[in-house]
Amino acid sequence: MLETPILSTDIDYNNVYDPAEDTFLLMDALESEHNKGQYDLERSTLSLEIGSGSGMISSFIIKHKIFGENNYHLSSDINPLAIKETLKTIKLNGVGRNDVLLMSLLDSVRDGSIDYLVFNPPYVPSDDVPILSDEDRLSVALEGGKNGMEITNLLIEQLSMKLSTEGCAYILFCASNKPLEYKESISDMYNMELIEKRKCGWEVLSIYKITRK
Amino acid sequence: MKLLTTNFIKCSVKACDASVSSFPLKYDNQCEIELNYEEDESIIEKSYQFLVGILDKIDWNALLKVCADLGNNDLPPNKPVLTQDSLLSLNDNEKLILKQLFNLLINTEIVNGSMKCDSCGHVYMIKNGIPNLLLPPHLS
């Protein structure tokens, strides 16, 4: 088992998502992918975590060189308070080639550049997709609109343009996102492979690896 | 923001996606730069494989442009030709190139300043080393 990154004791959990079962499941999935040895590449790669929040998962990727020795990792969030915590957590957990940015989904990414994308989206079904405001910075990390899929849908629309030739995305789904139906609906363009699945309290969470067809 | 990152980001405005002038962004010549140059060859050597590999991913013309924006015109006009095999027998000139690349891409940070899209003119700020590529509501 790879060591879990440490978090500073003063993280502002009123404004930044507190790592929970979904965070740990995603790290476990990345660890099992890492252990398959498929990332020990000679070529250099670029990874990006969208919605890095507290920085737990990005620190895990950097600290354990999850995507190999020759990777450059970017962490992004739309919440300025979250990106500050991401940076703090990454620094706390040691050194590695990485950078952080404020960005929405893949809006500002150069086409064809991402080798590994990691995303724990706001997946909880809600009436509307919340808007980030000074009064509420947490809902955007949780609520995903209809079926909890509105944000994931937007990302998938951008994905094929932004991935490198052999690029892939690791994305978390909950049962209400109906991942199997979704897999079918995007099957013209993408393969979706189950990497990890776990019952967490009243939720069933799964991590899928998505690649271009 | 590390200089390497400038090679992977473009304007966030959807209407600029089709425009070649939305990448790279145009960096203000008043940007505050922090140089943390590494002189210890043994540290740089650990990144040789990464540097040679990342050259494949780098858009060299974009890198030249960003460096020129920031007042650095020292880069060779063409991307250096280096392969993983050439790492087995590097000459002094190649070692120097790798050292320069390491210090430029990884150890040069834009701490404060701004960057602009040549297509739509939108200006993005960089504060405390963090670039802000978010758009105001009317543009997103």
Topology:
The complex is a heterodimer of chains A (213) and B (140).
Chain A: H1 21-35, E1 45-50, H2 56-63, E2 71-77, H3 80-92, E3 98-102, E4 114-119, H4 139-142, H5 150-162, E5 163-174, H6 179-185, E6 190-200, E7 203-212
Parallel strand pairs in A: 1-2, 1-4, 2-3, 4-5
Antiparallel strand pairs in A: 5-7, 6-7
Chain B: E1 26-27, E2 32-35, H1 41-45, H2 48-57, H3 60-69, H4 92-105, E3 108-116, E4 123-127, E5 130-131
Tell me the series of helices and strands of chain B, N- to C-terminal.
EEHHHHEEE
Whole-number tally of structural domains of chain A: 1
Radius of gyration over C-alpha positions of chain A, nearest whole angstrom: 16 Å
Mean pLDDT of chain B: 94
What's the domain count of chain B?
A: 1
**With helices defined by DSSP (H or I, 4 residues minimum), what is the helix count of chain A?**
6
Could you walk me through the main structural features you see in this protein, from its secondary elements to its overall organization?
The complex is a heterodimer of chains A (213) and B (140). Chain A is α/β, with parallel strands linked by helices. Chain A has a single domain (43-212), classed as Vaccinia Virus protein VP39 (Rossmann fold, 3-Layer(aba) Sandwich), CATH 3.40.50.150. Chain A has 6 helices and 7 strands; from the N terminus they run H-E-H-E-H-E-E-H-H-E-H-E-E. Chain A has a 7-stranded mixed β-sheet with strand order 3-2-1-4-5-7-6. In chain A, a hairpin with a 2-residue loop joins strand 6 and strand 7 (203-212). The longest helix of chain A has 15 residues, at 21-35. The mean pLDDT of chain A is 94. Chain B is α+β, with helices and mostly antiparallel strands. Chain B has one domain (3-131): N-terminal domain of TfIIb (Single Sheet), CATH 2.20.25.10. Chain B is built from 4 helices and 5 strands, in the order E-E-H-H-H-H-E-E-E. Chain B is elongated. The mean pLDDT of chain B is 94. The A-B interface holds A 41-46, 69-70, 72, 74, 78, 80, 83, 87, 97, 99-104, 107-110, 113, 164 and B 1-2, 4-5, 7-12, 14, 23, 47, 49-54, 56-57, 59, 84, 106, 130-135, 140.
